[in-house]
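Deliverable D5.2: sample structural annotation.
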Amino acid sequence: MPMRSDASHRRRSLRARLPTIVVILAATAVAASGCGSSSSTDSTGETGGTDGTGETGGTALEESLSRFRADESTRSYVEFGNASRIDELSGGTVDGTWGSLAGLGSGALFQHRTELPDELAIHPSEAESAITTGQPPAALTLLQGGQDGDEITSAANDAGWTGDDVLTLDDLGTNPLAVTIPQIVPLAEDVAVGSAEADMSIVDTDGDTLAADPLVSELASCLGDVVGAGFAAAGDYPTSYGVRPDEDDPDTVIGIICVAPPSGEAERLASDIEDAIASGEIPGSGQPYADHFVQPDVEVLAGDSLENGDVNDEVVRVAVTQTEDSFAIELFQLAAANELPGLESRLALN
């Protein structure tokens, strides 16, 4: 797609372009024990529940973000997967275009998905959605839906985990799963699992949530109703990325990248990303980005919710169609390698 000559043609209001669709579902909400938000998710990914501002509605991504307190750790990294929609698109397999997203958001739990049901009554494959925030050793994963808090507590106690609100294992050497799952918080139909230094109080607690955080909420709104998303919201180039199926062809992956660059750099960054997709190469492999992504649609959007002066006051949004033989996981792999087009080595992921 040729670069637009008139930069003003790209500039639009983010909230005007992507209004939040409010859907109140007549289904049983996923209830968290104690305080916090409750939610329910339908097959389209729309949710009922709090969005971090006290209002009801939003996408499945926004509802998941509303469960976490916003702090330096949670902003540093987020990975989200709408498991129910991914299963629908993949046919419940780990193969093919959409099967490549299986386990997205569930962190280290996915590699233990076969042992966990028997050992701790935790069912990663039954979750409606999964979200992981922070990075090891402070990473925390929340499985939403498909769990039974009483069964988890009983099984964990039998396996040696003890405690009141947070279940922990005194001797980590007594169970191989303890290295991956040292902390467990059953939450009715959900469960939170933390690594060794994770602050388990960040889930369903008082205070500003990620969904209400000006920068994170802007990047989430930019993505829209995606089935998988990642955030690297620290550093000079806070970024979110996600994928959704094409409206007319569910087998086709639409990738979305949203960046809030330093003030005055939005137009230059938009041009860099578009040029990289058209003619650049992936640093690690030398493959052209154009072998994976085509038809880039680049916009510069006004960051209506941003309140940090003239820093990160605009959002660059790029939507691309992934090529037929690509996998839905590819944007996430590029982000993990710090190789997103036009953003090479700019993400604060470590």
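Annotation notes: The mean pLDDT is 84. Residues 266-279 form the longest helix (14 residues).
The annotation will be released with the project's public dataset once the embargo ends.
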